Amino acid sequence: MRALICVGLAAGPAAISAQQAPTAPRGRVAAPPLTGRVADAATGEALPGSTILFDDLKQGTATGPDGSFSFANLPRGRFTVQVRSLGYNTVTQTVDTGSGQPLEFKLTVAATEIGQVVVTGVSQATQLRRSPVPTAVVDHIRLNQTAGSNLVDAIAHTPGVAQITTGAAISKPVVRGLGYNRVVTLNNGARQEGQQWGDEHGIEIDEFSVDRAEIIKGPGSLLYGSDAMAGVINFVAPDPIAEGRIKGSAITNYQTNNHLQAYSFENAGNLNGLNWLARGTRKMAGDYRNRYDGRVYNSGFNEWDANGYVGLNKSWGYSHLTFSSFNQRLGLTEGARDTVSGRFVREVFLGRYPDGTPATTTVPVTDADLRGYGLAVPQQQVNHLRIGTDNSFILGGGGRLGLQVSYQQNLRREYGNLLDPAETSLYFQLRTVDYSLRYFLPERNGWNLTVGSSGLHQQNRNLGVEFLIPAYRVNEAGVFGVAKKTIGALDISGGLRYDVRQIAADRLRLDGDQRPSQDPTADTKFPGFQSTFRNYSGSLGAAYNLNEKLTVKANLSRGFRAPNIAELGSNGKHEGTIRYEIGNDNLAAETSLQLDAGVSYVSDHVRFGVDAFTNSISNYIFTRRLLAAGGADSLRNGTLAYKYEQGQARLYGGEVSLDFHPHPLDWLHFENSFSMVRARQLNVPAEEQYLPFIPGDRLQSELRANFRRSGKRITNPYARLQLERTFAQDRFFSAFGTETATPGYTLINAGVGTDVASATGRTLCSVYLTANNLFDVGYQSHLSRLKYADYNVANGRTGVFNQGRNVSVRLVVPLSFK
């Protein structure tokens, strides 16, 4: 693996040297200029401003006033191209860039979107309806129209997707009832490695750096290895800039509920194949509010981010150096209450007793404590740095080699000492080097074959004064092969993967002051262990287009997940779950067998889809309460003790969507979806039969009006009204008081927006006005961890409620420099 890493780190400079040669290397002859035109299929009129994109080459351009376009320096070969224009159906086809023939694309007016392309979970860019793997796409239009406090919040309305939350700042994705280390998060195709097992933080990606999100629902382990058993979420960067262009954007967002302010600035360009993108973001929010709690004490956050890339796109392929720096500080809401007034309380320092012992007490918070953007103790700081290289090289004979290598450092500090606010109670330093190597073989007899390897080396150190998990190291490597073939209207794809993961945890002894000690007689906090997990994953599926409107799909997949460090080695009080957790280093790897089946019907005015799944998980890992010899609760440091064990689990459910676009009112959209998950643990007592953190059934209905290019100065206006009904969740993990039932609730969301154009038709800005929870409903999500905070004597309710009415104003200003 070290050899692969060295190759990756050398790839960027090698690519730069290669592009300086006067002629292309043997076997990588540049294609002749590729030209073409995009027009309206009904009228033949040119469509200026249309986007022509080669996803696999990271090259794109836009049509001129006469609808024409050209590429001067494409590699020679067969690649998928997609053509997009606002208000029209996307056209996707495979083209031979070396043919020298001009291309003609005729687009039809869109009532429904039928040509979306995905790059996640497939060996190369593929039209969404032709992929048997259940996948959803949330594009940048929907992201702008859906106001959220964080990135996961913005995609959690997708059918089959939910989120585990701790207030407005912390959200973790859940796909079809499974989350944490069972979902792999990608940052533009590269694995994002943080403390995924923890409850107290979200994902470390700047929301403004994302153009769209692609979500795989189910095992995606073939390309991504262990941990992708529940799914994969890929946050994809904006499309590449056209040759000869320099442009940018300025984005600002204000939200009324917690006074969130966000500012983001981007500059990107492409001059003679030299590509770059740079973005900086500032974001801050105060305490959020709802109708039952008022303002929720210490729920604010602030954030500084920077990210981008620089590199070359030439006839031999591309080589980009990428970077990302995510820096967030946020309050940790404990939800403690005053027993008389019901107000939130905070701890204050009163002084010291004669013997030097500190004296503290708790007092109700004041209105002044709830104003502004300040953070109190406890709070946490998360810093995530990524530096990587992303490369694709065109090889002789039509093959292509892709290589990604990156270094990541994730620092997570928790501050909980009132007397010394700078003291780090918990401090994890996680360093990761990861790689992905893929060889795309030349197409043979309609077969597309990809083989490759991916893996990582990871090291985590404890630098704080408290210890929840041991210091550890992980080495992982896997090899895979994926194939797909199109036979007329039938698309078949599948593959196999084999992984080896080794995890080694260090021994830790503590002296009487709970400090690390080398004395063999000191108390053992972590005994140390080494575990190796080997397993395989597989997938086989097909999509069959019965006609241009009707498609049926099926996919059978086997997933694999090695236990994480918390499950194997915990020994401490986990503040996120308010319990003492004990790991089990005898755990086996989880494996799953999932069957997906779906049908979709898309016409000019109706879109209907059903996706169903059943998933059986062997060696499912969960926590069980420990009992003392007499049958009473086992306590550690005054906290209930739990230990990780394994069992059998079964999940099933799916999503249904039905959208109408009535003729002749093609501007009117009535979109509906329903999603559900049922999750059981087998062969256990009745109170343990349901899995924890399973979202309730959800119905969403949205009435939306899109007026494409409907004015000279006010263009592309829209208005939307959404009903979101979440049904009661009475199938909950009741054992040991872990969960309680959650009543249903209905939220109404609304939004309007428009582009503002100059007299010449150039877009000056885009404005988005969104109102979530319009009627200020007081509710608790079943997946909210704050639901289990203290009882409020003032209103007779337990726990902290979710965010109330929130009005968001977002302004996007495009900037063109060349």
Largest sheet: 22 strands, antiparallel, barrel
Note the beta-strand portion: over 45%
Structural class: mainly beta
Q: Tell me the distance between the termini.
A: 43 Å
The coarse overall form would be: globular
Instruction: Give unreliable regions as ranges.
Output: 1-27
Q: How much is the average pLDDT?
A: 88
How many strands in all?
Answer: 51
Q: How much helix, percentage-wise, in residues?
A: under 10%
Task: Note the main attributes of this structure.
mainly beta, 5 helices, 818 residues, 22-stranded antiparallel barrel
Descriptive report:
The chain is mainly beta. 5% of the residues lie in helices and 53% in strands. The chain is built from 5 helices and 51 strands. The strands form 10 sheets. It has a 22-stranded antiparallel β-barrel. The longest helix has 18 residues, at 2-19.
